[in-house]
Design brief:
6-stranded parallel sheet; single chain; 7-stranded mixed sheet; binds NADP nicotinamide-adenine-dinucleotide phosphate; 30% helix; 2 domains; globular
């Protein structure tokens, strides 16, 4: 098989950058660690698909890998990983057993890197799944089970479609879990319209799009003015997180909770999507209504949470932790592209060679939406019209 250009993260570069930054995550330059490398593609097996990558999105697990927070994943996986677990591609060739895809199809990757007996990921592709090669590359060979047909006629642009393969299934799973748990406690007959709160970021905004599509009240507490403004067109009420100092003190949390109380006639939020934990968790919990549900698939600000068990028991509040979708759930989430999911993307679509800068700007939290990287210079006609 030919070689392709692919980004890699090496443990020695992670260590060198950490040392240069004096161990301060804020000083780490992500672009100094992400390297454009050569990768030899594996042979196309009977169940494999060979594809050309058209566009990818910037994903936070790359940040986690470069910072070696959570775990030092490059070191754990033998010293080097090839990141990137959200991509849109064009099928170039398929193995002899592949029937779902053919050359010329436009496809999306999902990153469930090892489904358990119920389909839930035990591992994430291009992160902790053994031997998994990511898709921040010009070409890739993947198993056909990792692909979903791209809904190119859903009304979204190619770049908006590229924003969704990782974040939309995550939001979809969080939403169906949170709603299911809430409905165990309170039936639709008892309360049809819920108050749903989410915090900043791509997954958080998609979560609220699901809530709005089902007729619920939605509140987005984010620091980004552009993001809040974008969500207002879906009827989502924006709350500036910076007015509450990103919940630095208990007083900030109390003020935020009071604000939400005012906005909800004293009821608070029946469903809260967190994604960050740390101070955001405390704020989400303080804003929970009776019988509320607090869900998260992220731990960007902290892996540990503490809470008053007595208080949550008395309020009948459920705290739930999730982790990406099943392959079937990824297909279901994809069916909502364009109708429910209309993502906010960052103003610049980055060229492939600037993927490091893209990831660094994401680390600095300066982007106005989900960051997209154009990988292919030449696009097939089927998607050139939506680029
Ligand atoms: N387990 C899974 O399956 C799974 C799947 C997807 C994502 N995740 C994780 O979930 C997290 C969010 O993912 P995402 O894709 O939604 O991220 P994203 O689109 O990059 O958004 C992250 C958002 O967090 C907010 N933020 C950043 N720093 C903050 C701070 N110090 N305090 C408060 N808010 C801050 C920012 O919003 P504002 O500035 O507007 O407030 C930012 O836009 C990431 O850690 C990611 O790794 C997990």
């Amino acid at each position: 098989m030919p070689k392709t250009r692919a980004y890699s993260i090496r443990a020695e570069d992670v260590a060198a950058e950490s040392e240069r930054a004096g161990g301060d995550f804020d000083q780490v330059d992500i672009s100094r660690v992400l390297r454009l490398d050569d990768l030899e593609l594996r042979e196309v097996g009977r169940s494999d698909v060979h594809m050309k990558i058209l566009a990818v999105s910037g994903e936070h697990n790359v940040d986690h890998a470069v910072l070696a927070d959570t775990v030092n994943i490059a070191e754990t996986r033998g010293g080097k990983i090839y990141p990137g677990n959200s991509a849109v591609g064009e099928v170039l060739a398929v193995g002899s057993d592949v029937t779902r895809f053919a050359a010329g199809d436009i496809v999306l990757t999902h990153c469930n890197g090892g489904p358990d007996e119920y389909g839930y990921p035990t591992r994430i592709w291009a992160y902790d799944a053994d031997d998994s090669i990511g898709w921040y590359s010009e070409e890739a060979v993947v198993g056909d089970w990792q692909l979903v047909k791209a809904p190119v006629d859903c009304g979204l642009s190619l770049w908006e479609i590229a924003a969704l393969p990782l974040r939309a299934p995550t939001a979809y799973h969080l939403w169906r879990r949170a709603l299911g748990i809430f409905r165990v406690k309170v039936s639709r007959e008892q309360l049809a319209t819920l108050n749903v709160l989410s915090f900043g970021g791509g997954v958080g905004e998609l979560f609220l799009m699901l809530a709005r599509a089902e007729g619920h009240n939605a509140f987005f507490c984010a620091g980004s003015d552009a993001r809040r403004a974008a969500l207002e067109r879906f009827g989502v009420v924006g709350i500036d997180q910076k007015e509450y100092n990103r919940f630095a003190t208990r007083d900030d949390v109390r003020k935020f909770s009071r604000k939400l109380r005012d906005l909800t006639n004293g009821v608070q939020a029946h469903i809260v999507c967190d994604m960050l934990r740390g101070p955001v968790f405390a704020a989400g919990l303080a804003a929970a209504a009776r019988c509320g549900v607090n869900v998260s698939a992220g731990w960007q600000l902290s892996q540990e949470v503490t809470y008053n068990s007595t208080l949550q028991s008395v309020k009948q509040v459920t705290i739930d932790h999730t982790h990406y979708e099943t392959p079937v759930g990824c297909e279901a989430a994809t069916a909502l592209y364009g109708s429910v999911f209309k993502p906010t993307i960052h103003s610049e679509v980055y060229p492939f060679e600037d993927l490091g800068r893209c990831m660094h700007e994401m680390h600095k939290n300066t982007q106005t939406g989900i960051p997209i990287v154009r990988v292919a210079k030449d696009l097939p006609a089927s998607v050139a019209k939506i680029a």
